[in-house]
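Q: Convert this sequence to structure tokens.
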Amino acid sequence: MRDWARELGFSQIGVAGVDLSTAEPGLLAWLANGFHGEMEYMAAHGVRRARPAELVPGTTSVITARMDYLPGNTPEGWQAIEFERLERPQEAIVSLYARGRDYHKVLRNRLQKLSERIAEAIGPFGHRVFTDSAPVLEVELGARSGQGWRGRHTLVLDRAGGSMFFLGEIYVDFALPATEPVGDHCGRCTACIDVCPTNAIVAPYRLDARRCISYLTIEHAGSIPEELRPLMGNRIYGCDDCQLVCPWNKFAGRSALPDFDAREGLVGQSLVALFGWSEEEFLRYTEGSPIRRIGHERWLRNIAVAMGNALRKGEDAGIRAALQARAGHPSAVVREHVEWALRQSGGAAVPSSPRPTGDAPNS
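A:
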């Protein structure tokens, strides 16, 4: 099975059992704290996320699969290169995982092919494929099946592959021997907690999604809290900071697939250029991309925030003109963020971001 998985572009597979009962208290506490924000689907499924056999009746084992997503041509020192982008306020930053093809489609298709290969070998069996597409505790399953350990930023970390990978699962109705989990190798390092721009990692292994830039730019539908906007910098879709700073990511693997190669126009592009996309252009340029799911309105909202942050760093006639051109946008959300951005000229102070407290681990 490992050879088949590698042929399909997976870097590692593992097997977990279906008893995740020890994860239920943490999940319930995380939800009770409201750390899931507006992601109501997480609350709607409750503890079913920790009960694979209830989610898919008959499930006996879970096959987990890991797929690296750094493009094959990623140079050495890529972490420093990405940090340097954050120092260019007029440049738009899209999270590394979102610069290529939508990973949901890539993993789902290849997990299904892996299922078919297994069926050819053992005969028909009941299964269901998941990749960030249902109430599944992916990190928990990944850690239990030996894909790595849960880092303090709540993501799975592997000594030989860092954390720049996607996880997917195949729920199956036959028993497989579980693979062994690995130990924690974070030591005393707190780099991921210290670097978080919005202090979303409220404590080791505890993430308040409501403060996370990835959540704010992707999952959050309405107005972004004003106190968090200056902390977002030029990040317009997602945030990689906690992974960029992680020492283990110097070992991050490169993808064997061209699907995750960066699309032209999503790297090194100016905020003004992307803010100028019409809705038709947005849909055309993001076809087959995970970015399309946020829609044109959120796209403009996110870029408006980044443009306001750029104006805080210094006056820019091009950015100001682009914002003024959108001042009468039909969307109240876009108009409000544009108005905020235009008020940021003159080096407005960036508000402090006191570290919030919390007592529930990330799900």
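The chain has one domain: 2-269.
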